[in-house]
Write a structure and sequence with these properties.
Length: 71
C-alpha cells in the first residue's frame, strides 16, 4: 500500500492521476485533499456515494495499479 507520506511527497503527480481516476472530484476537493489519504477517502465517499469499505477498495486498487510509477 502506498503510504500517506509517499502520496504527500508526490502530490503534484498524484493529483493528476487521482483526477483521471475519480473525475467526479472537483478542483476544490483535490486542493483540500493535499496528499492525505484519509481525506481522499472522505471525498470519494461523498462524491460517489461509496461506503468506507468501497472507497478503501477503490483507493487500494488505484495504489496497487500505480505502485510502479516512477513519480
Amino acid at each position: 500500500m502506498m503510504n500517506k507520506d509517499k502520496l504527500s511527497n508526490n502530490w503534484n503527480q498524484s493529483k493528476i492521476k487521482i483526477k483521471e481516476k475519480w473525475n467526479k472530484l472537483t478542483d476544490d476537493d483535490i486542493q483540500c485533499i493535499e496528499g492525505r489519504r484519509d481525506l481522499l477517502m472522505e471525498k470519494i465517499k461523498k462524491r460517489y456515494g461509496y461506503s468506507k469499505d468501497e472507497a478503501e477498495k477503490e483507493i487500494k486498487s488505484w495504489e496497487d495499479h500505480n505502485k510502479n510509477c516512477n513519480w
